[in-house]
Amino acid sequence: MLTKTAASVAALGLMVTVAFASGGDEPVSSQEGPRSAIEWLTDPASLMRLIVEPEAQAEQARDPIQTTLLGGQTLGGVGLLSPLITGLPQDTFANARPERLLTLLADLRPSDLPALQDLALVLLLAELTPPTTADGGTALLRTRVERLIAFGAIDQAQALLEQAGADTPKLFDLWFDVSLLSGDDAQACAALRRAPNLTQDLGARIFCLSRGDDWAAASLTLEAGRALGEIAPDDALLLGQFLDPEAFEGTPLPSLQGQMTPLRFRLLDGLGEPPATLALPLAYAVSDLRDTIGWKAQIEAAERLVRTQAIAPERLRALYTERKPAASGGVWDRAAAFQTFDAALQSGDPGAIANALPEVWAAMSRAGLQVPFARMFGAELTDLPLAPSAAQLAFKIGLLSKEYEKVAASDARSDLPRDVFARSIAMGVAADPRGLGPLAEAISLGFTLPEIPEPFAALVADNRLGEALLRALLLLQDGAQSDPGDIAAALVLLRTNGLEAVARQAALQLMLMERAI
């Protein structure tokens, strides 16, 4: 057992606890990993761009990272976004059935509709009263963090844990993993050096000893763990290579049976052998945003993370325009099309913009990046004097931007029936869906039904709004492929519970992303 290891190591005198006692500045390890490139924490209110107005965001500007809980608050209710920011009732989750709530949260996966993906992130980050549970909300907090990790929202997950005060045995392992993924592990490792019993994972202890420049204690702990059989042979070899690369020069890296872990990833990265992240879960893509990573890998990582709203679209724009593509195909073609369009936009030449727009839109559509592109350029495009075909496309793109209502009310127009219908939706009015198919009919119902249909009505009547919203997210995760009845019911649920903006944008995305290619 690991507890036996800890006792044995202590008895052997190999856990040099003096190293944990310092309360001063932490030394910087020679194996220092780069910090996360995500800048989300510098603008936490940006997550709410589709749900609240900027002035409401300004009123709530505050440091998102705390280290203590508010009086009487349980772990499950810790959040980075207050009810005033989110617009959600304080008791959104309070009456949920705890096990059902955990199941619904655990089933969340990235949505095909960015508006609903934004809402999922809001629910995961919201500061709301949780249901009463024997564990004080620990399981709820852990599940929320695990979903954030699955979405690639690593900085947000780390901030949420630090808000809760993660230097406890019930949260430390998760905090340590998130810190490794973000590349900002100094605080977690400092906590572990001060209190080794935060975890029974010897790998974490060894790594954090090395981060404190206590290489001798790290090596001795590794040898004790190896001798006692408490560290898997492959992991022991990898840790040994990380601690003393010169001693293992010429030795191949271990095969590492089983799944990749944040610690394994960080050790391999420290040895100059970072694994390719495209085949790994989204959480690992964050490491590819570093300047030391190849440009192609940075773009691919940013595209993955932008799709789940984990980073802002502007980050992708900066990467697309960083340098000239050196090849063709795939990501290079997207970068080239984006650069041509961006240069045309910078020139202000309507003809050049009109010529470049169809190609870049097709490239963004094939990659599932229509909404990020629209959020970058949609509102600006609708103000330009473009040729008729380009103006129609610009109008559609504008309706997918965060300025959708302004675009719909502007002089910009498209006489295509689908776009006319979408314009009405952007204004919150259901137009005649005849001739546009089942999807338009479902959306129209979502803006005309006077009462919430099942399966949501009973949940709302029972004051279990949180469960209803999560169920709606699950039912609509497949976007336009979702059941029309579910689409209509979910839109009514959103509109009648203060989430009109989410409903409109989800409806617009359903209509306009369906035939974007």
Kindly describe this structure.
This protein is mainly alpha-helical and 517 residues long. Helix content is 54%, strand content 0%. The chain contains 26 helices and no strands. Helix 10 (202-211) packs antiparallel against helix 11. It is flat. 49% of the residues are buried.
Mean pLDDT: 86
Percent strand equals under 5%
Radius of gyration: 25 Å
**Terminal CA distance:** 56 Å
Any descriptors?
517 residues, 26 helices, 54% helix, mainly alpha, flat, disordered N terminus
Quick rundown:
The protein is an all-alpha fold and 517 residues long. It is built from 26 helices and no strands.
Secondary structure layout plus pairing:
Elements: H1 2-12, H2 54-59, H3 83-86, H4 98-107, H5 114-125, H6 138-150, H7 154-164, H8 169-182, H9 186-194, H10 202-211, H11 215-227, H12 233-243, H13 262-270, H14 295-307, H15 313-320, H16 331-347, H17 350-366, H18 370-381, H19 388-399, H20 404-409, H21 417-426, H22 438-446, H23 456-461, H24 465-475, H25 484-495, H26 500-513
